Amino acid sequence: MVIKKLIESFNYAIEGIEHVLKTQWNMKIHFSIAIIVLFLSLFFNFSKFEFIALIATISLVIIAEMINTAIEATIDIITDKYNPLAKIAKDVAAGAVLISAINAVFVGYILFFDRLNPWTNILLTRLKQSPAHVTFITLVIVMLTTIILKVHFGIGTPFQGGMPSAHSAIAFCLATAATFISKSAIIATITFMMAFMVAESRIEGEIHTTYEVVIGGIIGILITVFFFQIMK
């Protein structure tokens, strides 16, 4: 019962993200930029604190946009007539988004500008030095991709059903990453067996169709292979 309520809570939270993605063009832009920036971060030798600053900055922009949308929806429930106080509330919320976006540009400038000059070194970094970094970025991009696709198809909920299966995508993403990192047939066999078990459990539980699970697995594998091959 507790686990079911926890899953429902996660569903409600991600449904909120889905709503903002569906209704707010700015959020689609934020998500797209976040994916691009995370991808570019693979090519630079960021320190832990720099990477934390990058993640925190991306999160701040997305959170600000979501709070802005929530405030606008709340005001629209209260009144559908012009009210100077309602205008102030909406303008202040929009201003918060603007400040977070300006902050993101500033942080991006500090993190990327000096590193963008020596182009000859950009493609010669990261994979062997920090496979954990590549794995984390790949996992985040797989998760964002599945959320965007679920919003696009509009079927099921984030954790229960829908196209594609996020569980399968994540499971096969991690299995593929483990294969690249370990370069061991035994590790690859074990991790892919676990991924298949995750996929099978989604089908057996009638949460996903076989097609949704297969598509999720393919997405997880292809995105992971793409990033790990690019970083060689």
Automatic annotation (TrEMBL):
Residues involved in a divalent metal cation binding: 72
Keywords linked to the UniProt accession: ATP-binding, Cell membrane, Kinase, Lipid biosynthesis, Lipid metabolism, Magnesium, Membrane, Metal-binding, Nucleotide-binding, Phospholipid biosynthesis, Phospholipid metabolism, Transferase, Transmembrane, Transmembrane helix
CDD domains: UDPK_IM_PAP2_like
Membrane topology annotation: Multi-pass membrane protein
Binding sites annotated in the UniProt record for ATP: 12, 72, 90-91
Residues the record marks as active site: 65
CC per GO annotation: plasma membrane
Family, similarity comment: Belongs to the bacterial diacylglycerol kinase family.
Name of this protein: Diacylglycerol kinase
